[in-house]
Design a protein that fits this description.
- This protein is mostly beta strands.
- Helices cover 0% and strands 48% of the residues.
- It has strands at 4-7, 10-12, 18-24, 33-39, 46-52, 57-59, 67-72, 77-82, 91-97, 108-109, 113-117.
- Strands 2, 4, 5, 6, 9, 10 and 11 form a seven-stranded mixed β-sheet that branches.
- The radius of gyration is 13 Å and the shape is globular.
- It starts with a strand and ends with a strand.
């Protein structure tokens, strides 16, 4: 079992930026997948962005060109730089890790961090 801790959420105006961070409790081996999911009220949890140890990344169409995911394979940390934020980006963002590919979530989840985009 891997513990994941997220941080960096908050309240921001439309067009603003935030950077989320995720830290895993284990650094003795590499986590194949690390990813960000989000869930807004009344909506399904969805993949926002993820990264493989290989460097391959995947983004939701709605965030391409605005969000950038990066990770440190040695430290098992991950960040999500969110730019040009929109009201529809409002959600709880969750760190996920330990999967084998980015088509499905891995078994480990963080507790989430709230991102609210509002004027």
């Amino acid at each position: 079992q891997v513990q994941l801790v997220e941080g960096g959420g908050g309240l921001v105006q439309p067009g603003g930026s935030l950077r989320l961070s995720c830290a895993a409790s284990i650094t003795t081996y590499r986590l194949i997948t690390m990813a960000w999911y989000r869930q807004a009220p009344g909506k399904q949890r969805e993949l926002v962005a993820g990264a493989m140890t290989s460097g391959d990344t995947k983004y939701a169409d709605s965030v391409k060109g605005r969000f950038i995911v990066s990770r440190d394979n040695v430290k098992n940390t991950m960040s999500l730089q969110m730019n040009s934020l929109k009201v529809e980006d409002t959600a709880v963002y969750y760190c996920n890790a330990g999967g084998y590919d980015l088509g499905l979530p891995g078994p480990s989840w963080g507790q989430g961090t709230q991102v609210t985009v509002s004027s």
